[in-house]
Amino acid sequence: MTVKPTVLQELPVDLQREKLPRHVAVIMDGNGRWAKTRGMPRIMGHRRGVDALKDLLRCCRDWGIPALTAYAFSTENWGRPLEEVEFLMTLFERILHQELAEMMAENVKIRFVGNLDALPRSLYAEIEKSMIDTENNRGTQFTVATNYGGRQEILQACRAIATQVQQGTLEPDSIDETLFASHLYTHGIPDPDLLIRTSGEMRISNFLLWQMAYSEIYITDTLWPDFDRTEFHRALTDYQQRQRRFGKV
Ligand code: IPE
Ligand code: IPE
Ligand code: MG
C-alpha cells in the first residue's frame, strides 16, 4: 500500500501549466491575529509565518512558478512596539542564516528589496551575503520586501532620475516607463501576475505600487500561518479563471 502524501508535491491536475502566473506576490498578513486566537504572543504568529513562507517557496519550485515576492516588513511597520520590531529583525537574520545552505541546494536566487541601508548592520550583512552567494542560481527568483514602501521606492527612483537630468546626462523626454522601472528595486523582475493577500484585508498597504498596475488580486480570509498548498491551489484555480484584458476588449 502506498502512503498518500500529505502535501501536494506535483502540480494539481486541474491547473493548466501554461496558464500559471510567472510571478506571484504575497502580502503575508494575519500573523498577530493567528497568535491571538490561540492565546499566544504575536511573535509566535511571526514564527509560524516563516514556516508558511518556506513551504510556499518550495511549492513554487515544485509547481513551476518562476518568481515569488513576499512582503516581510513595510516602511510603516517601524511604528509597531519596539519589542516586536526587534523580534522581527532578529528572526529575519536567524532564518536567513539558517536557510542559506538550503536555498543554495535548491538553486534559489534571493533578492531583498527596500531601503536596506536602514536595517540593523548584522541583518544587512546576512542579506548581502545571501544575495551574493545566490546570484548565479537559476531556480526560483525569490524576492523579499524588507523595509519596503512603494511610495519610498518611487521617490528614490525620481531622485536618481532627477540627478541625471540635473547633471545633463539624461533628457526629460527620454524618461519612459522602461527607464523608470529600471530605477526601481525590482528591476529585472517581471511585474507580478498575481497578488495574494491573506487575513481578509482589502488593501495593498504600500506594496509594489508601480508594479501591480495590472496584477490580478486574490484575497483570502485565511491567516498567513495557515496559508498552505491547498490554499495556494485555491488561489491559482481562481487566477486561472480570470480574464486578463489589460484595458483591451
Ligand atoms: C503580518 O502579520 C506580518 C508583518 C506585518 C510583519 P501582522 O503582524 O500584520 O498580523 P496582524 O495583521 O496583526 O494579525
Ligand atoms: C502589510 O501588513 C505589511 C506586511 C505584510 C509586511 P500590515 O499588517 O502592516 O498592513 P496594514 O497595517 O493592515 O495595512
Ligand atoms: Mg497585519
Biggest beta sheet summary: 6 strands, parallel
Characterize the overall form: globular
User: What is the CATH homology-level superfamily?
Assistant: Decaprenyl diphosphate synthase-like
Q: What is the C-alpha radius of gyration, as a whole number of Å?
A: 19 Å
Q: How many DSSP E strands?
A: 6
Helical proportion, percent range: 40-55%
CATH topology: Undecaprenyl pyrophosphate synthetase
Percentage beta strand: 5-15%
Count up the helices. 7
Q: How far apart are the first and last residues' alpha carbons, in Å?
A: 52 Å
H/E series: EHHEHEHEHHEEH
Could you give the order of strands across the largest sheet? 3-4-2-1-5-6
- Overall pLDDT metric: 97
What is the name of the CATH class? Answer: Alpha Beta
Query: SS-based structural class?
Result: alpha/beta
How many domains, as an integer?
1
Strand and helix layout:
Elements: E1 23-27, H1 31-37, H2 42-63, E2 67-74, H3 82-105, E3 109-113, H4 121-133, E4 141-148, H5 150-166, H6 177-182, E5 194-197, E6 216-219, H7 229-240
Parallel strand pairs: 1-2, 1-5, 2-4, 3-4, 5-6
The structure holds 3-methylbut-3-enyl trihydrogen diphosphate (2 copies) and magnesium ion (MG).
One 3-methylbut-3-enyl trihydrogen diphosphate is lined by residues 28-33, 73, 77, 88, 199, 224.
